[in-house]
Fold this protein.
Amino acid sequence: MATASRATEIARLYRQTLRAAEGLTDYNFRSYFQRRAREDFRRFASMQRRGAVDAAGTGAFLESGKETLAMLKRQALVSSLYEAGPSAAAMAQRRPRRRRGEEFLYRGPARARARAPE
């Protein structure tokens, strides 16, 4: 019974770790932590299948996994605060978009000359 609850706790920690890694905005950090989580949990599962892990080892793995999860959550928060937006050059090239039925306030000198009375 105790091993079944530990197994569900490990599976829950695995899913939470992958979700926290998805919260990172930078692709490189996100893929690194997802890959690292998969590798760590697969390594632990293979050691567990071979019988190389006892109850103390499982507890230590859960504690280190919880610390890693907490770190990922903090890093995802910091990452979202300093998310890089479009560059200044991209913003300068962007044109304002019109919605249907909406007109620009500034029409430019070409339209002003075309509408000038004779």
Summary: Residues 6 and 59 are 9 Å apart (CA to CA).
